[in-house]
Amino acid sequence: MEKRSSSADISMKKILVTGPESAGKTDLSIFLTGYFNGRLVPEYARKYIEGLKRPYTFDDVVAIALKQRTQYHELREGDRWIIFDTWLVITKVWMDVVFNKYPDWITRELNEAKFDLVLVCAPDIPWVPDPVRENGGEQRVRLYKRYIDETERLGWRYAVVEGTGEQRYRNALDKMEAIL
Q1: Between the CA of residue 134 and those of 118, 138, 142, what are the distances in Å?
Q2: Domains located in the chain, CATH noted
Q3: How far is CA 74 from CA 10, 77, 89, 145, 163, in A?
Q4: What are the pLDDT tens digits along the chain (180 aa)?
Q5: d(CA 82, CA 170)
C-alpha cells in the first residue's frame, strides 16, 4: 500500500480507533499513523495499568480518563492526521460495566469532542490473552456492541473494520476514503 503524506491543502483530521480488547486497535492505529504520516495518540490505559502493582480501582480509571482528556486538548495546529488509539468512549463504557458509574464530566467531554471518523474494530480476529486483558468470549462481543451504541448516541460518523492482516488495513483505508 502506497503511503500518503500530509499536505498543506488538507485540514487536520482526527480519527479515533476503538473496539473491544484484542481487536487490533493498536496495530491499526500504528499502521494508519505511518500511512498518513500522522501523529499517534497512544493508548494510555494499558501503560497505566501495566505499571500498577495491584488491581486497578475506580480512581485509577478516573486518572486514565483525565489523561485521555488532556491528550485530546493538547492537539496542536500543524498535525494533519491525528490517530487516537482508543479514547474516552472505551473508558466511559468500561467504568459503567465495572463500577456502575462514571464521572459526569466524561459525558460532557464526549459530547463536545469532534472526530472526523471513528473506526470500530470488530472482534472478528482471535482473542490473544495477556496480563491486562479481561474480556474475551461473549463479553468481548457485548462490549463491541456497547461501543457502537455509544458512538451512535454521540452522533459520530463511524465505520466497522473487519478482516485479518493486510486486508483489515485495506478495509480501514477503503472506509476512510469513502467517508472522508
Answers
A1: 23, 12, 13
A2: 13-179 (3.40.50.300)
A3: 20, 10, 18, 30, 33
A4: 555 444 444 588 999 999 998 899 999 999 999 999 999 999 999 899 989 989 999 999 999 999 999 999 888 777 789 999 999 999 999 999 999 999 999 999 999 999 999 999 999 998 887 767 777 778 889 999 999 999 999 999 999 999 998 999 999 999 999 887
A5: 19
